Amino acid sequence: MRVLHVITRLIVGGAQENTVASVLGLRAKPGLDVVLIAGPSVGPEGALTSTLVDGALPVTIVPHLVRPLHPWKDCLAWRELVRLFRAHAPHIVHTHSSKAGVLGRLAAARAHVPIIIHTIHGPSFGPFQGRVANSLFRTAELCAARVTTHFVVVAEAMKQQYLAAGIGSPDQYTTILSGFALAPFLAATNDPQLRATLGLAPDDIVIGKIARLFKLKGHDDLLTVAPELVRSCPRVKFLFVGDGPWRGRFENRVRALGLARHVVFRGLVPPDAVPFLVGVMDLVVHLSLREGLPRALAQALAGARPVVAYDADGAREVCLNNETGFLLRPGDLGGLRQRLLQLVQDPELRERLGRRGQQFVRQRFSVERMVDDLYQLYLRLRSRPA
User: Fold this and answer.
1) Which of 10, 105, 212, 275 could form a disulfide with 48 if both were Cys (CB 3.0 to 4.6 A apart)?
2) Over the stretch 63-104, which tens digit does the pLDDT of each residue have?
């Protein structure tokens, strides 16, 4: 069975790590020939291509498959995808991310690919956009849905949002959680040497945030409550992991708030460095307003670190209120301040929530389970009568 996966960019991010892990795992399954196609991996988020070395996962690059809307390049990318699909003659085309999801599915239909699957890693339209952009992306998804055989969602919230928008029918959806290698997170330790390297003292209480430094990720809300947290507990430090176009803005705000000694910008790190950084965190906060199912939350819990999250998209499916962490209404700064201070001051609470979270994630988020579920889906769709 020939399967082509298509994604817009192989930057450092949850959807991209999910796709690479899926393709690598599926290539080891019997009877599968799996190829990965992507656009150029450009941007401040960094590229995952450094992990695709030694021929472990060759990638076919489509130069005109770019993230921004660009009618001329989009047309050229569609034509190139049609050519590739006709040349490979796949049984399945499986697309990821918004741009590749729309162009890839329409190209697969033009090339008469029998099975077209799209994974919804996060919403491509919604209230986080302006009215024009929201209408445009929703229309594009509706158009692509007409040629889609099946949808994979990483959270039930994505299924409900897309069905509410009139995209697909319930029997077209399968939820497959975004798995990852659990072992490094399960083994995460509070390494004093790494703490020292980062400028963190052994007795500092470290609030971690793993996210792109950009809008909708919630850094501004965290910085708004940070001064009061520091006044209440001077040992509080904040560790920001990730990079992005708003880094300068956040660094300036940290200085203006007088928090330069309390905020560490670690910057972009390769995926295999994340477990070590989770290990030196005491808790993890995730305040994104647009997410499928936040990978950072699941990874924090795998490391037995409790989480605080806004109740957006699929966050509630892993941040179980008062079980694995605390779930808040988006923009609830009073609640954010209260819950973070509660966790800062109560190590036993952090331990209880973290251990419960680790147990929860261990049962559901292994990369092996994700790959097996995808493989079984492929077999099931292929066995259906034409």
Assistant:
1) 10
2) 999 988 889 999 999 999 999 999 999 999 999 999 999 999
